[in-house]
Task: structure prediction
Amino acid sequence: MKIEELFSVRGKVALVTGGSRGIGEMIARAYVENGVKVYITARKAEACDALARELSKSGECISIPGDISSLDEIDRLISEIEKHERKLDILVNNAGASWGADFQSFPENGWDKVMDLNVKSAFFMTQRAFKLLQAAGTKDDYARVINIGSIEGMRTSHLEAYSYAASKAAILHVTRMMAKYLSRSYIAVNAIAPGYFPSKMTDSIPEEETGVIEEDTPMRRWGRPEDMAGVAIYLASRASGFVCGSTMVVDGGLATTG
Result:
């Protein structure tokens, strides 16, 4: 098989949650520019609609804003997609939040908000999208679920973001659980564990910390959009046809060599 076919995602249909900015935007843009019909969802309708208009200049991108921390909103989102699609080739569970506070003052709402969005919504989004994914998968070309974890779910961070670290460790293990059982329906589930990429979430990191992170990263830089685009396309294409239950670490060596 030629490399163009091996890595092609043209003609597929994808849903990217948290797709209006940050890593979600990087993935949505990569898919649209390479021939995928992409649905994006995010809580802020204005930002979601604006990105969809921009990306539609390069391909096809549809905005369905919503707060997927609610199961009713997840159901509404999937129902909207079902009005237009018979199948879903790619689901990217990217929507997420973080919360930083020292141990003694860490609040319950900072725990619940992060765990619900980062873990619960990813699980139930996949559950509700199951029939669409099942309709897309075949023995020779599985449908794909890509869960966005983090290196903070793999290591002990210097940042006190307790619920975020716990949620990302959880999503990496949920990925393995879903991979085992969804594979029976020709759905391959994998995860990406990013290091530090520019986003609204990482904008909150103090300036003095950003330099430390770069210095501690063996490749001496933060992630770029093309770094995320490459692994997202790989996991959605035939190039990863025998990859299931894996976590692709994209961190410049920060967690993997420390």
Summary: The beta strands are 13-17, 37-41, 60-63, 90-93, 143-148, 187-194, 247-250. The chain has a mean pLDDT of 95. Residues 176 and 245 are 5 Å apart (CA to CA). The first helix runs from residue 3 to 6.
